[in-house]
Amino acid sequence: MVRVGTLPMRLLALEFGADSNGSIEYVDPDSKFVCFQTHPTEKSRLIFQIGTSDPHLALQAAMIVRQDVSGIDVNCGCPKKFSIQGGMGAALLSNPVKLKDILANLVQNCGLPVSCKIRILDEKEKTIELCKMIESTGVSAITIHCRTRNERPKDPGHWDIFKTVLEHVKSIPIIANGDICTRDDITRLKDLSGLNSFMIARAAKNNVSIFRKDGLLPLHDVASLYLKKAIECDNYFPNTKYTLTQMYSENSKDPQYHAILKAKSYENLCKIYGLEPFSVEIQEKVSNLRSA
Questions:
Q1: CA geometry: angle 162, 54, 109, nearest 5 deg
Q2: pLDDT for the residue numbered 3
Q3: Which of 77, 97, 122, 124 yields a CA-CA distance of 20 to 30 A from 230?
Q4: Distance from the Cα of residue 243 to its chain's centroid
Q5: 285 — pLDDT class (breaks 50, 70, 90)
Q6: In this structure, are residues 142 and 75 in contact, taking their beta carbons and an 8 Å threshold?
Q7: Which pTM value belongs to this model?
Q8: How far apart are the first and last CA of the chain?
Q9: Contact, 178 vs 186, CB < 8 A?
Q10: Average per-residue pLDDT in the chain?
Q11: CA–CA separation, 172 vs 228, rounded Å?
């Protein structure tokens, strides 16, 4: 969800029925563009996820955003090379002492609920041990992605781990993540594991209307709604274009996907979805606000 979970996507997810949202923000110190946007309507349901390898820097980051979010999550599951090389993400799974220091420092000092997201270890017993250590730091919840550090989306997730962990970690919620692609998957996983909390990432990226109780909307409709939301938020155009291409990642033969790739402006994107009048109206409002 890196670069996809920005403000317009988060607001749309809430409108479709998501209970809470996570924001994964990577800051470019040389960028002149806003790296994190939020809106008062999402504050009570916004969790800010941090990629960190340093207890003190983690706390500094949390204190910067604490007035705008309702919780802090530590990413202990990202297997990407840049994250591992920086000692962040899944690298923390093999450094439990540092992970404990990071979580304890945040819990004791940031003034917000703290959670973390992990991947499972190669052995169930090690995963249980890790979860119990995390529980001991005072965190409010643990999200478990049911793959190991070296497994990828093409590898089936290990749903059996959830029930096992739930039998040993009883004081805080366990949130299931991985291979949840439909609302029916939530029902099946709930019956299998006994869990009541679920995190959806890839499926929400592909079609954020997965949160609708009445079922998915067509991708074209969802993409159009997303584009309107992005324009209303004055979202950075390259981010909006990137997000739209990710929404079509499993529909790369769709003519709209190729039109998106060629787009060089919001005007180009609006032509794809017939939103030219809407774009003009909103951009005039944004321009007036900037000059006020």
A1: 80
A2: 86
A3: 77
A4: 13
A5: confident
A6: no
A7: 0.91
A8: 35
A9: no
A10: 93
A11: 38
Which are the catalytic amino acids?
A: 78
Q: Please give, one letter per residue, the 3-state secondary structure of the chain.
A: CCCCCCHHHHHHHHHHCCCCEEEECCCCCCCCCCCCCCCHHHHHHEEEEECCCCHHHHHHHHHHHCCCCCEEEEEECCCCHHHHHCCCHHHHHHCHHHHHHHHHHHHHHCCCCEEEEEECCCCHHHHHHHHHHHHHCCCCEEEEECCCCCCCCCCCCCCHHHHHHHCCCCCCCEEEECCCCCHHHHHHHHHHHCCCEEECCHHHHHCHHHHCCCCCCCHHHHHHHHHHHHHHCCCCHHHHHHHHHHHCCCCCCCHHHHHHHHCCCHHHHHHHHCCHHHHHHHHHHHHHHHHC
Please check the confidence at residue 47 and state whether its pLDDT lies above 80: yes
The least confident of 99-113, 182-196, 233-247, 275-289 is 275-289
- Asked if the model's pLDDT at residue 1 lies above 80, the reply is no
Going by pLDDT thresholds of 50, 70 and 90, the confidence category of residue 27 is: very low
Amino acid at 127: T
Q: Within 13 Å, how many C-alpha atoms sit on residue 53's CB side?
A: 15
Measured CA to CA, the distance from residue 245 to residue 263 in angstroms comes to 11
d(CA 188, CA 74): 28
151 in Cβ contact with 113 (< 8 Å): no
pLDDT over 60 at 213, yes or no: yes
Rounded Cα distance between 161 and 182, Å, is 20
Six-digit token string for 193 = 């594991």
Q: What percent of the chain has pLDDT over 70?
A: 95
> CB neighbours of 266 closer than 8 A, spacing ≥ 6?
231, 237, 240, 279, 283
pLDDT of 30 > 70? The answer is no
- Give pLDDT, residue 32: 55
> Which residues, 6 or more positions from 249, have their beta carbon under 8 angstroms from its beta carbon?
205, 206
